Amino acid sequence: MEKRIDGLTEFLAQTQAIYEQAQLIDSDMDKNELAALERLQELFDSRQETIETLAAQGTGEWSADERAIITEIQQTELQLQPLMQTVQKQFSAQMTRLGQTRKVSGQYAGAYRQPTSGGSFIDQRK
Questions:
Q1: Total-model pTM
Q2: Euclidean distance between CA atoms 97 and 91, whole angstroms
Q3: For the chain, does the N or the C end have fewer beta carbons within 10 angstroms?
């Protein structure tokens, strides 16, 4: 029982840390530091480990203290969801822009190159 409360408390702390980190991320992905995005991913990874530990302990009857912690987790999650949706949309948009840029630059790459002659010299004078 104590293990579950400790696990739920840790889960709540991790969720709150994710929420705080998500608030630091700018909606313009170009303005974000890579470290901030990596930190967010690390927080999600550690929270996933906590979820797996809690799942292994079972989800039988919850005590009143456990239910209070779960309610707090749910409230934090409700605040976190819009932030994460914004981050996901902006990240997807940036990846789309990068793909389009790569495609367009690939189309024009050959336009500025001279045709090669296979190492031979071609005299064009007549």
A1: 0.67
A2: 10
A3: C
Q: Which residue has the tokens 């367009």?
A: 104
Q: By three-state DSSP, how is residue 1 classified?
A: coil
Could you tell me the CA-to-CA distances from 17 to 21, 68, 85, 101, 117 in Å, in that order?
Answer: 6, 19, 17, 35, 61
Token code pair at residue 101? 């840029």
Token look-up 């991790």 returns 14
Q: Residue 21: which residues within 8 A CB-CB, separation 6 or more?
A: 36, 39, 40, 43
Instruction: Count the neighbouring beta carbons within 10 Å of the beta carbon of residue 40.
Output: 19
The per-residue pLDDT for range 35-46, each reduced to its tens digit, is 888 888 899 999
Instruction: Output the furthest CA–CA distance in the chain (Å, rounded).
Output: 97
112: tokens are 């500025």
Q: Where are the alpha helices (DSSP H) in the chain?
A: 2-24, 34-57, 64-108
Tokens linked to 56: 């292994």
Residues found in the chain: 126
